[in-house]
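quick one, 413 residues, struct below
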Amino acid sequence: MMLTPHVGTTSPDRQLCGGPLASHVGGFAAQLSRIGYAPSTVHTKCDFLAALSRWLERRQIPLANLNETLLKQFQEARRLRNRVRRGDLATGQQLLAYLRDQGDIAPAAQKIDRSHSSRLIRDFEAFLYTERGLSRSTVVRYLLVIRRFLDKRFGCKVLHLGRLRPQDLHDFILHEIQRVSRSEGKMAVTALRSFLRFLLQRGAIQTDLACTLPGVACWRLPHLPKSLPPDQVERLLASCDRSTPAGERDYAILLLLARLGLRGGEVLAMTLDDLDWERGEIVVRGKGQRLERLPLPAQVGAALASYLCDVRPACTTRRVFIRMKAPYQGLAGPVAICSIVRRALRRAGLDPEFKGAHLLRHSLATNLLRRGATLSEIGQLLRHRQPITTQIYAKVDIASLRDIALPWPGGAS
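---
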């Protein structure tokens, strides 16, 4: 099979593709095109495939033996010949994934840690998902805490869980709160309590040690919510260059944050199936795996429709918001939403103390309160489970606070 060369190219990698990978050039190229790579990039990646195929052929290595170790040897050989190109590492991983999907090479070898500690953590992870119903992000944070605790208490030794004492727990928590914020310290206590109840439930410990853990002082509502006034919110929205695909996408994302008060993770998790155009509603995948429906304002709906019809590339993912460069897939994580907010703030010339996605959620609630909305109404819009969660916004209602303020002792009569 002959690879189609670029005009004026004499690269030896564009010679006849022989060897065990020759039959996969077309399929690999088609997959790369489907996920959005430009033709020139597809050619470059297929050059890599052709070179690897010839390398395998010269060494008489059958395709079925190809794995990460052989791929590393091939890349090292290319490095010694100064043939390494930018993106070769990613191309190699993409090719292995493609061949595994086709069933032509063995699945990736799993490094299974059969230590007691690892098995225990896997069991605890299953417990958090099945019995506690926690979200993936929460489970990940809990497991990090428990790994640190087990490493600190037992190191590489055998886990004698029955020997755990309250002092072990206190020492760990004291160490944690010295290196993390108060809220993270509070989360560490919660994770450790959950782990101890899990151990008690399965009989690994005989005493309920969870009740011996001290709480971390983290007072509710200690500060004012960070927010932007309405005119600055509009400046931020106007900073998006809607003549570009990325600007159109970012504008739709910022509107969801600013008009509906969605969390960054909720925007990230949104799928095409969550948009009910007939009813003019949107399904929000909130905390605790809750699904809630919100009305879709006309401005937000128009921005979403414009993005979906005119900008969003055709791809297989059902995520609403995806990368604007290949491979076309959902945004990497909540940090991507925060980065969009930070870039918009920078373009608008705004420099608030807090620059995360929650800034627009706080701004919406604060501005609604100043326009006469009740805390109950704001809590419904923000989908707070408990009314106390919304009470922080009462601190910005200065007019109402003046009415209940007591006279200053010794002040003017």
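The mean pLDDT is 84.
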